[in-house]
Structures are given as C-alpha cells and as structure tokens.
Amino acid sequence: MSLNSEQRAATIREFQETMSRLGLPAERIGKDFGVSGSRVEQIITLKSGVLEYPWIIRAYLLSKAAAQGMELTPFTALRGNPHDYWFLDGDFIDRGEID
C-alpha cells in the first residue's frame, strides 16, 4: 500500500507539527532510539523504505503526548491499530526498534 501525494504531505506535516508541539527535535527522538537525528528525519519524511518505522515513531509520539497529558491532532493516514493492516508487521512495530 502506498499513500497518495496529499496523504504523504499531510503525514509529513503532522509529524513535524506533533514533534514541534511536544518540543521533541529529531535529534532527541533519535537518541531515544539509538539512531541519528537524520535517520529520524528520513523516517518522518517517509523516505526510510521501511513501512513500519513511521508507525513506530507515531507510537513514540503518542506515548510522549499521553505522558504530558496533551491531546494531539490525529494522523490522517497513520490511524487506527497497525495490527489491523495486513501489509504491516505488527510485531515489528510493537518491538519499537529502529535501525
């Protein structure tokens, strides 16, 4: 499955807005995953080549928002439970690891 151009643009914008609202730059997120900030940028601009990585970052951001008691605008394309999508590896996402 792939996103259309509007969904891609919205998803990238939603990642950037969410990170900004939470005060989490890519470098900080990268540190939590043991990767570089540029790797996080690659993922949130949907250029990682791994479908599950944006979902892992999404889950991370949602948990940070919940910890801060902040309600985020829902992602338009990355919505629902990733286990419901046949083309995603839910166990991979649950592990929450990024290379």
What does this structure look like?
This protein is mainly α and 99 residues long. Helices cover 57% and strands 0% of the residues. The protein has 5 helices and no strands. α1 runs parallel beside α4 and α2 packs across α3. The longest helix is centred in the first third of the chain and has 18 residues. The mean pLDDT is 94.
Q: What's the count of strands? A: 0
Overall pLDDT, averaged? 94
SSE topology string: HHHHH
Q: Quick one: overall form?
A: globular
Class by helix and strand content?
A: mainly alpha
Number of helices: 5
**Low-confidence region ranges:** none
The helicity comes to 55-70%
Radius of gyration from CA coordinates: 13 Å
Give the N-to-C terminal Cα separation: 22 Å
What portion of residues belong to β-strands?
under 5%
Largest sheet: none
For this entry, give a set of tags.
99 residues; mainly alpha; 5 helices
Please render the helix and strand layout as text.
Blueprint lengths: L4 H18 L3 H8 L3 H8 L7 H16 L22 H6 L4
Brief description of this entry?
The protein is an all-alpha fold. It has helices at residues 5-22, 26-33, 37-44, 52-67, 90-95.
